[in-house]
Write a structure and sequence with these properties.
Blueprint (H helix, E strand, L loop, with lengths): L6 H7 L23 E7 L11 E7 L6 E7 L6 H8 L4 E8 H10 L4 E5 L4 H14 L6 E3 L7 H12 L16 H8 L4 H10 L10 H4 L3 H12 L4 E4 L14 H20 L4 H25 L3 H4 L19 H23 L8 H16 L1 H11 L1
Antiparallel strand pairs: 1-2, 1-5, 2-3, 3-4, 4-6, 5-7
């Protein structure tokens, strides 16, 4: 598994070139009379942002031959903007490549990532079923699929293969809720990047605030490894232990910095109420901030087919229509700003009673500060009230 899907990880992380283990020619896969042993490899997280959720592979260990591993996490990570554009529209194709055991394990050791091994306790018939599926999937007609970080990735593909071969053992009892929401799982992976944690409040929608079942949570390699141990009785063996320090799973979020940034754009409006000559400039400055978020959020919602981006409740908080503020007459500008404040208060109420599910308090605060100043001319109104008294 690479970075998001949180699609956020894709948009911010996949511009970096990524090496991958070298593909094995399908003709090099051994033809053995005896069914192979099936081995599950799970890999820990790495340094790069798109490695923060680990990875998996399923390997066939033939008697008297080197094991062959099947990697469903292959795509062109050097495609740049095309890769980002395809991810946002759920068009990015991934595929499965056969790779030698030596090349795969050497690569992840070189990346200094933990490697766990689980030899699956399959019957000959079950192992043959897995083998046929893997061999079928590397055929040109079958090897491609459209990647979804949470529902169809390199780990869910292996989960489904193992579950099918074992007659549904992984699925048994897996309809119980997992302890964390999709968003909480994602934020654990982003703990090293506090600015991205704050950014998710703006651009990642309510689909990630769902609590997955244990079955759905097996999109994550760690959960798959744990469930294979629980359901199939296979304790994972640590083949390689990372030498570097452990990666954090919690920490700063930079949400306070997001509010401070919003204040940088809102505070000139307060100054401009005392010095009217600066009002136009201050208004344009505040509008720049509001419009940036409005355009970004609405564009992603309109362009993306990823549910985690498309169903974003922040569209009711930050809107591209705020671009009109500097061009409205003072009376209409006040009415518009007051209407926006009413909407923001309604959104706050919907969050409080649980109808809106996203963590929207930072976006709401960043929007309501400049809009409330415009709507009620706060310092000027207060100054007049004091003079009147």
């Amino acid at each position: 598994m690479k970075r998001l899907a949180l699609a956020l990880l894709v948009m911010l992380g996949t511009g970096v070139a990524r090496a991958q283990p070298q593909r094995l020619d399908p003709g090099e896969i051994p033809e053995a009379q005896k069914p192979p042993e099936v081995v599950l490899l799970t890999f820990g997280v790495g340094d790069r942002i798109f490695e923060k959720f680990g990875h998996t592979a399923l390997c066939l260990n033939y008697e008297g031959a080197d094991p062959v591993c099947f990697n469903y996490g292959v795509t062109n990570f050097n495609a740049g903007s095309e890769l980002v554009w395809n991810f946002v529209r759920s068009k990015q194709k991934f595929w499965v490549d056969p790779e030698s055991w030596e090349a795969m394990t050497h690569f992840y050791k070189w990346e200094d990532r933990d490697i766990w091994v689980q030899n699956l306790p399959l019957t000959s018939e079950q192992a043959t079923k897995v083998e046929r599926k893997l061999i079928s999937d590397i055929q040109e007609a079958n090897r491609y699929y459209v990647y979804d970080h949470f529902y169809d990735n390199c780990t869910t593909r292996l989960r489904d293969i193992i579950d099918d071969a074992t007659g549904g053992k992984l699925r048994e009892g897996s309809d119980a809720p997992y302890p964390l929401t999709f968003r909480e799982v994602g934020l654990r992976g982003l703990a090293e990047f506090p600015p991205l944690v704050a950014l998710t409040d703006f651009i990642i929608g309510r689909a990630l605030d769902k609590t997955p079942t244990i079955w759905e949570a097996m999109f994550h390699p760690t959960v798959l490894r744990e469930q294979v141990e629980l359901k199939l009785g296979v304790k994972p063996k640590l083949l390689y232990k990372r030498h570097g320090p452990d990666f954090p799973t919690e920490g700063a979020t930079d949400r306070i910095l997001a509010i401070v940034l919003a204040l940088v754009f809102a505070l000139p409006l307060l100054v401009a109420t005392w010095r009217r000559k600066l009002q136009g400039l201050a208004l344009a400055w505040a509008t720049l901030y509001l419009t940036f978020w409005g355009v970004l959020i609405w564009a992603l919602v309109l362009l993306s087919s990823i549910p985690a981006i498309r169903w974003n409740e922040a569209v009711f908080v930050l809107m591209p229509f705020d671009l009109a503020l500097p061009f409205l007459s003072p009376t209409r500008r006040t009415l518009y700003a007051r209407g926006r404040v009413v909407v923001l208060l309604l959104v706050s109420l919907l969050c409080a009673i649980g109808i809106f599910r996203q963590p929207l308090w930072v976006p709401i605060l960043t929007a309501i500060m400049p809009l409330a100043i415009i709507a009620f001319d706060l310092p000027h109104a207060l100054f007049k009230r004091r003079n009147a008294s």
